[in-house]
Amino acid sequence: MTGKTLAERILSEKSNTDARAGDYVEAEVDAMLTHDVTGPLTFEVFRGVTDGDGPLADPENTVITIDHHAPADGVQAANNHNAVRDFAAEFGAVQFDVGDGICHQLLVEHGFAEPGDLVVGADSHSTTFGGLGAFGTGVGSTDLGTAMATGDLWFRVPDSVRFEVEGTLPDGVYAKDLILRFIGDVGFDGATYRAAEYGGSAVQDLPIHERLVLSNMAIEMGGKAGLVEPDERTARFLARQTGRTESSFDVSLAPDDDADYAAVHTYDAADLAPQVSKPSNPENAVDVDAVAGTPVDQLFVGTCTNGRYEDVRVVADILDGETLAPGTRMVVVPASKAIYRRMLDTGVFDTFVDAGAIVQSAGCGPCFGTHDGVLGDGDVCLATANRNFPGREGSMDSSVYLASPATVGASALYGEITDPRTVETTRYDDDVVTPAEAQP
């Protein structure tokens, strides 16, 4: 029998079975999350399963955030926020409020996910936690409400698709460019209900904040999960986030050399170029040269994909001492309050304001298409976001292009899509906040 993929290894451990792709297993969940949009239905299901009385199976690892309509953009949103607060208070769940940040970022900052964990969330970008070597996946509110009551959930063990990148990434090419290229190559449904497994020397050289980008957007090719093999860098990152010792994290998880993959895609890092996904699907990825010169009205920096401190810092470095091109506007929405504070402490906030950008409180912002910078008819936006479907960030008649923070920063100088290799860009290792700074 062949060896196991990362997905098979984790689900075997969590189900206490010899799990193989295609098997159905009942697996123990380590952490669960929902938010102000998916929460109300999740709560209804949970109450139904428990006859309204609870308890939560694991309240200390049940996380509820207010991040999508934050601050509230209407009465219904405000009522949903109150429902989150009331439920968390009644059942003892961990709750983050308006301005604390995006659910996926908060779980990373506060140590709710680590290598080998199984993390489920009523949000499709729960694949993010694979950047730490966890099996993170999105589930429906019905599944999550049940898991909150029982502590486990049924899964079909997914096949895995391997993306192998060897070598050193060229200047101006980041993890966002890698994942856009992967999605462009396999298509929006190319990994449907499969685990995307990322490896090779270029991936192992990535800091954790960039590995999280790869895992976050696995869902944009249909992936059930997106996994990066953990290592010493993972342990260092988590130790700094949590205050625990590096040795307390088991980073031995790895796929077997003879693991069976549904497909393997190999790349030479030296051949890769900055990518831009054209409207209106992430799979429409092209080299930046193909769309360079396209005028843009708005630039958006943020989201659970590229709203981390290192991401906004890359943009700020390009804008330092400069101003936005005439006729353009920029909206910056950090992924957490800790990042917002870091921007203030390091002068990044001032750089954006001096350049003419608008900096919002932490949350999902325009990515959800309801507030904080929605697009009007005919508007063209270049965003560090994860999706560019029609109407995703506002008007159905607007257009959204997806790119890396470096490409967005370079484009802000000229008011048109610009190759980041034409300006000086930086590449940061994990410049994480301390646990004290990360408190809500």
Taking the sheet with the most strands, its summary is: 5 strands, parallel
Basic shape: globular
The rounded Rg comes to: 20 Å
Strand order of the largest sheet: 4-3-2-5-6
Organism: Halocalculus aciditolerans
EC number: 4.2.1.33
GO biological process, one term: L-leucine biosynthetic process
InterPro entries: Acnase/IPM_dHydase_lsu_aba_1/3, Acoase/IPM_deHydtase_lsu_aba, Aconitase_4Fe-4S_dom, HAcnase/IPMdehydase_lsu_prok, Homoacnase/IPMdehydase_lsu, IPM_dehydratase_rel_enz, IPMI_cat
Descriptive notes:
The chain has 440 residues and is of the alpha/beta class. The chain folds into 2 domains: 263 residues, 2-Layer Sandwich (Aconitase, domain 3); 149 residues, 2-Layer Sandwich (Aconitase, domain 3). Helices cover 30% and strands 18% of the residues. It contains 14 helices and 18 strands. Helix 6 runs parallel beside helix 8, helix 11 crosses helix 13 and helix 11 runs parallel beside helix 14. The radius of gyration is 20 Å and the shape is globular. The termini are far apart. Catalyzes the isomerization between 2-isopropylmalate and 3-isopropylmalate, via the formation of 2-isopropylmaleate. This is 3-isopropylmalate dehydratase large subunit.
Tag the structure with descriptive keywords.
Aconitase, domain 3; 14 helices; 5-stranded parallel β-sheet; disordered C terminus; alpha/beta; 440 residues; 2 domains
